[in-house]
């Protein structure tokens, strides 16, 4: 996965009423080539728009509240580490985004040899930059389902955050209450109650899980958080006992990164750094280790 340059670090569904968006295109402008993925509420295809490759998400049914949420949020975002929204069709049947030819990070790790630490840090920094952009918006955008399969890789290896179907805008200074969402292997434990209250720190926790996954890859260990464990085990070990993935193999080589992970996946959200603080720590690590 070649990389040409480093990005700079920056400090239940129901049918929805479809509003008018500014990116509508005729369905005839799209050409669908092949299926490349599947999500909870849409199928994803490789296609073309005006002869350019694009990813085309086809909603399985009429547009839902979740699908409309993704459309609204994606259309407002503009950052090199966020997958670019291109268009939607007039009937809101298809969601068109940029095509990231290296697929998602979770699957990429499975098939590719261990990268250098420098290469891995580039991916981690891209992720950090994208999340920081989301959290610094007004109102902040909380992804809520951040995991390695929601990180896409372009041809040159740039990492981009995708899949905003569960994202929410945090419009008040109070923590937001909502229902349980997301994927438990990467998910912050404060989400695991009947009426969870949370803020942007849930994404910080999930980022730590993805960082851990990438660092294991550097050490040629191809795994993900709580691989092979069921939800009951994860709820008990992580939520009740405060257990976290093992980091001893990382600590031997990069103890400063383990210290960062420990802070980011702390049980108490208030003990976690902001994503901006995590970004600063990563910059310091790069300078100290000439990465």
TrEMBL record:
TM annotation in the entry: none
GO terms of molecular function: ATP binding; protein serine/threonine kinase activity
Keyword presence, Nucleotide-binding: yes
Pfam families, per the entry: PK_Tyr_Ser-Thr (PF07714)
Alphabetical UniProt keywords: ATP-binding, Kinase, Nucleotide-binding, Transferase
Residue ranges constituting the Protein kinase domain according to the UniProt record: 30-291
Name of this protein: Kinase-like domain-containing protein
Naturally occurring in which organism (per UniProt): Favolaschia claudopus
Organism phylogeny: Eukaryota, Fungi, Dikarya, Basidiomycota, Agaricomycotina
